[in-house]
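$ fold --in a.seq
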Amino acid sequence: MKKVSLLGGFLLLAVLTVGGCKGTGSEGECAKDGDCPTNWVCDIYGKFCRCISDLGCNTALGERCMPSGSCEIYTGCKADTDCGGCQSCQVETGECLCVEDCGCPDGEKCNASGYCQPSSGCFDNEDCAQSEICDTPTKTCISSAICTHKLQCLIGQICVNGVCQIGCEDHGDCAWENGIKASCISGSCQPGVCSDSTFCGFLESCELGNCQNAYNEATAPYCMPCTSSIGNDCGDIATNLCLIYPFEGDAFGTQHDEYCGVDCSVTLTCPNGFQCGAIRVVDPADECSSDAQCPAGAPCLKSLEADKGYCACNDSTNRCPPDICGLITKTCISSKKPCQTSADCAIPCEKFPGETFGGCVMGRQCGLEEGIQCQL
């Protein structure tokens, strides 16, 4: 329920019945508080003045500022029978308070404090009675026995013909069980069944509905420490590259500067905690601190906190560095792709969306998502 606030010891309600300015006001009489006398304010809904303090009333005649916003001779109630239907008497103050909406004028509802306020609609269930819920699309309170949207139902339920029933329309309708989010399959939440790696734990992949550890020392050595200067120590797949570890100060980072990435250029899938990203190679001659140090049309790409960045590639003014085919291994020196000649080792300049420049991409690897760190 909406709350009321205290002002000068009097309850300030949202909108009250039309009492008018000193009993003579009508709708449209005011547009702002300045149109009303002292100790009166303008009702922004009804456009009439209402009192906010006894000082705005003729106290010599026994008038008081009523919750309705009008000045009336105060007699007070002593029992519920002194009040109207759907109202009760608050003996301590002599006020008749509403107990249900039927104790209010048309277009108003009874709030939690027992005062009538305009029914401007609901925004959540707190604005409705205990037996009701808020239908947010229409901003109206409806019986909790019916529904108009699945958001009004418990997790694992959807709204069918006005009734919450067990079922699902998508994965978001299902709950987590034993650390794994249940999957929505054929309209039913299936616990323990994954739909993709995001349903699984760190370094786990979804395989045929089951979360499995994706680490494999020979083919997928995720997080294995490596040294790029020692050839390939990231498993049997030559295109697995040794990547720079981006974190400092944790147990892994204090011992290792690099970790194994896994080639995802074919499958484009990575376990949870990793994402398939482009690996860009930078020519040492392209290091820069400002655009002025780069060829025309190739801006200096660097973060605000970094001292140095690198010049973006451009097909005409700043080509990508060459890769060389190893005569013995028949693999490209940098990208480690299979090759017959150096022509097979070209590193393309992949343009950024809507730009004429980009980065020199020599492959794609499953690298760590930001904020996720390797485990020892």
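$ fold --in b.seq
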Amino acid sequence: MPRNVTINLRMIISSIIFFIIMPLVIYLGVTVLEDRKYYFVSIVLVLLACVPFFLRFERRRPQPREILTIAVMAAISVAGRCLFVVTPAIKPVTAITAITGISLGAEAGFITGATTALVSNFFFGQGPWTPFQMFTWGMIGFIAGLLGKTGIMQRKILLALFGVFAGLFFSFGMDIWGAISTAGMFSKEAFIAAIASALPFTIIYAVSNVIFLLLLAKPIGEKLERLKQKYGILQ
């Protein structure tokens, strides 16, 4: 099969998993399991996130350094969240996840974001909100990876705009959880109330995303690019 056909097929499968199957898994976890099996839902999300990643290796063995690189980025993201524990609205997680996606690809970005949420919540507390955090942070990395392929994320103004978008995306995604947890089911009124109450958090979070992206994108991105060029990982 030609390489471009393989890449397109992989991206189609990735998009179906991330945009359709994962939201369906979360929905079933909320409605059918009634949030009682959030560990199970979280594990399912992690396994689903790995499927597109391993599609990269259908014709060759994965190099340990490729998996290690993503694991290190996730560990840095977890450490960053823990370091800023006293400032709930200021976290470098989104920036590190987005930079990983831009440099290493959409699937790597998703795995970094989802893994960060799951692992860091062993320190911050696991709960029914964990799958929502995994999905929203993961999707930020996935979208950043898709945009990174176009080259537009090299422009600082567009990188800053993505930071704002990511802040809104994460906050609104968690507001869905807030609406469900408050009302027992999703309602427009509860969702609007959750957005309004979280507005200060959303603004601060969006601004901090922009700052972290502008500060970290170049130094981390350059190191990841050197790894890609030197070892030929995730090409």
